[in-house]
Amino acid sequence: MKRFINFALLLGIVAGFFALPSCSTEDELDAITLSATDSAEANSKMRPLKGNFELYHQVVSGLGTPIQEIRIQGFGQLSHLGKTSFINESILVITPTPPFISTGTSVITAANGDQVFTSFRSVHTPQPDRSTYVVITHTITGGTGRFSDASGGFTAVTYAIPGVVPGILTITGEIAY
Q1: E-assigned strands of 22-130?
Q2: Which CATH number fits domain 47-176: 2.40.10, 2.40.160, 3.40.50, 1.20.59?
């Protein structure tokens, strides 16, 4: 009987020995999983996006009155991207009665070369002084590098003034990456 008790005790100790590391491993796996989840949540949190740019625009082609293909390049500073440049490609429809609408896509290139992609819609409202007040609403659709899963949106505002180059563009919005 004493031998049976010793054997049972030894078996219990051995079983406990194997059970303890597995509990520790599960706890470690839980901690790693929580850490990865926390990192994903931190990466997807919305961050403020603000910046100012100099603009240069070019009518690429008149696709037929009243439709124009427009390319706009900008150079400036943007929060979370640093020294930044962008290229907008859009189609502007000039209707008999303003405001005029354009839609298009944009590629924004950060200081390190990573890119943010957007689609946008803009409303062009002519002013009495011959300038045009333009409000552009961008939806972030992704990107490259650290912005590969980027989302969010921003509004860009400018006054297009004939003969004044460069134009000035102000951006405010949010980005998650």
Answers
A1: 46-64, 67-78, 82-93, 100-109, 115-126
A2: 2.40.160
